[in-house]
Amino acid sequence: MSEPAANPAATSFPTSTISLPLGLEVLRTYTGVLVCLEILFGALVWILVASSNVPVPLLQGWVMFVSVTSFFLSSFYLTLLVTGLADRINTDWNFLDVFYHFLALLFYFAAFVLEAATTAANGGAHIKLLPNSTDSVLCITYPRGNIFTMLSYREYSINVAATIFAFVVTLCYGGSMVMGFKRWRK
Questions:
Q1: Cα separation values, 88 from 2, 22, 30, 95, 124, Å
Q2: Biggest alpha carbon distance in the chain?
């Protein structure tokens, strides 16, 4: 008797390729730590921008979109690795890792620049309390650009912190992309 023919549907899909360990072992790798930092600092960017009363919605709307979307996508990616489900999905995970982190790096860099522009657009405006009085006066210096915001000291400080954390998240995504590229090229 002859051997039965192999099912073409079963042989036409490639096996999944992933060079990261699965389960909790992924958290012991540099990539796993960077993804955790991306989630943590990305959540901080999200929280800080939302708590700043969003003085320039056009710019900070993009920052919110990028931080919230990246937070959920990175959380989903880490969940797939920790639960081991990535091994059951037949795809080239090394390529998807590089591609996702490249897009996240581009988007987060743009978000960082926009958040920094919003913060820098404060233009030296500050509110001073008059001595021996409950009255206050608004002091405005000459604005340096097309966008001018009037932020309180609290809002300005929150936007500075959001800018710093957005830069840190951008570096984390860049590091993840470089490490993913090295794994993909092996």
A1: 32, 11, 23, 16, 55
A2: 105
Distances (CA, A) of 83 to 26, 51, 77, 79, 80: 10, 33, 10, 6, 5
Q: Report whether 125 contacts 151 (CB < 8 A).
A: yes
Give the rounded percent of residues in the chain with a pLDDT score beyond 90.
33
- Beta-carbon contacts of 50 under 8 Å, excluding residues fewer than 6 positions away, are 64
pLDDT digits (tens, 9 = 90+) for 71-94: 999 999 999 889 888 888 888 888
Phi, psi for 137 (deg, rounded to 5): -130, 145
Is the pLDDT at 117 greater than 90? The verdict is no
Confirm whether pTM is higher than 0.85.
Answer: no
- How many other C-beta atoms are found inside a 10 Å radius of the C-beta of residue 78? 18
Determine the Cα angle at 78 with ends 42 and 64, to 5°.
Answer: 25
- DSSP conformation letters of 1-37: -PPPPPPHHHHSSPPPB--S--GGGGGGSHHHHHHHH
Strands (E), 25-89: none
